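step=predict obj=Putative disease resistance RPP8-like protein 4 n=151
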Amino acid sequence: MEALGKLPHLKYLSGWELFMGKKMTCSRNSFPQLKTLLLRGLSNFEEWKIEEGAMPTLSRLGISDCYKLKMVPDGLRLVTTLREVEIRWMSRAFKSSIEEDGEDFYKVQHVPSIDCMEDCYIDTDALKSKRSKMTQSSMGVSLQDLSFKIT
């Protein structure tokens, strides 16, 4: 992501598994013209740091299927140009943290539109259990066994 952050005219960045690491840092002055950032399917993504002065023109942020990411980066509160945040298929803990009474709400309270897919989350404990059973068993697994909990 560091190399992409240096592209001076990049305005839209989206991709499935765009980043494979555990920790991502958006450094000061990175992504100078980025308007839209969609992070999707980052299966190893656990921690995100946004430094002051990063993404100074970002207006839309989407995060989906990054189930190991537990919290919004503190530096997101410094991205004052942000107008829209879309959350899809994230852990219940992540979703709860950005709700009005959540511990991370102060990081996104300046955003006019926060769209969290209602009543739709990934039960990460169930997912871990299913994966563990799949690796321990040599038997076939039905699609029904792989279903996510949707409430």
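step=describe
The chain has two domains: 2-120, 124-151.
step=end
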